[in-house]
């Protein structure tokens, strides 16, 4: 069975990440989802190390889409990707974290590629 595109959730709040993951898991179980939410002390914020760990857990031959909640989460995600020197991760820019990750998980589950999922998500971009 081919690998599925993974989903990485980067949020300042551990509770937001857990909620998004619970929503995805209500309908999909075989898509790799990794969370990097909160600081290393589980406070509000983000951690480059947590993001790197989530990328490592999810990054496969099919790649992964990274969703974030706020601009500083995106900045830390970009640094984490650069430090890991990976080209399998795509940041879902200006995509709502809940709707975007849910759609991506559904499409990954039916076997769509990273490019196909990214194209679908372009239809729900928001102006930030």
Quickly list its features:
alpha/beta; Rossmann fold
Q: Tell me about the largest β-sheet.
A: 4 strands, parallel
CATH C-level label: Alpha Beta
- How far apart are the termini? 38 Å
**Gross morphology:** globular
Tell me the Rg in angstroms.
Answer: 13 Å
Estimate percent helicity: 40-55%
CATH architecture: 3-Layer(aba) Sandwich
From N to C, what is the helix and strand string?
EHEHEHEHH
Q: Tell how many strands the DSSP assignment holds.
A: 4
Protein structure class:
alpha/beta
Sheet with the most strands: spatial strand order: 2-1-3-4
Report the total helices. Answer: 5
Domain module count: 1
Pick out the low-confidence regions: none
According to CATH, the homologous superfamily is Phosphotransferase system, mannose-type IIA component
According to CATH, what is the topology? Rossmann fold
Strand content: 5-15%
Overall pLDDT, averaged?
93
